[in-house]
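Anyone able to model this chain together with NDP?
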Amino acid sequence: MSAIKGKVVVITGASSGIGEATARLLASHGAHVVIGARRLERLEALASAIHAEGGSAVHQRLDVTEMDQVQSIIELALSRFGRVDVILNNAGVMPLSLLEALKIDEWNRMIDVNIRGVLHGIAAGLPVMQKQGFGHFINVASIGAYAVSPTAAVYCATKYAVRAITEGLRQEVGRDIRVTLVSPGVTESELAESITDDEARLLMKEYRRDAIPASAIARAIMYAMEQPAEVDVNELVVRPTAQLA
Ligand code: NDP
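re: yes, here you go
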């Protein structure tokens, strides 16, 4: 029997890309997926598609920058399924630009979604998992959590932060609760659409030519989940074979 069957998995940023692909994959293996993002119509369509295949999904509008909304989706999971096995802190934005462009609003949005969003997921989920005596945080960082490049200083800073927070969390709660960092390389998704800077957008188009499908990252996430409870996959970096840096 699949180790995924019956697991209750809350997924932030499930309306496209990696979050959506992971929801589909896990639901097809029998997980109950609790999917959140801001675009409600996308979530409705995804939940319907999962139901049509015989899977289990509930959805709720979610802005991870709002702590009460993150709390609320965890409560939805608890009220519908009685526990939370996994929180996939996946929501993220990547409006790249050179620092000299001074796109301060975009810097703040990356900090709010990519860092605060993950912290909100931890704050909402940790008391629940501690009470249960089990649980698994899977945080999505990036290869940008390991190296910095021009136009990506702030984005990489947020992902370095996610890596640091994830490692700290692992060290603090590791006895009963598993903690995994998944760091994708270039992956097909809508992520680059948040770039408003023309030059950065052009550079990214070229850089993103060799993208792997979002389902490749979904499989990495599922691999971490399906290990026995005493096995914690700490970090996974998954990039296209053709991507050297
Ligand atoms: P997408 O843009 O396709 O997905 C991002 C998801 O985040 C969407 O579902 C979006 O939904 C959601 N989101 C954005 N802002 C918020 C918010 N405030 N509250 C809740 N949800 C939000 O890109 P990816 O699938 O690629 O991104 C997923 C993660 O993977 C991100 O953390 C990203 O940094 C990381 N990553 C991706 C890489 C890639 O090449 N694709 C490489 C490295 C890391 P909505 O707009 O409906 O709210």
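Strands lie at 8-12, 32-37, 56-61, 86-89, 135-140, 177-184, 235-238.
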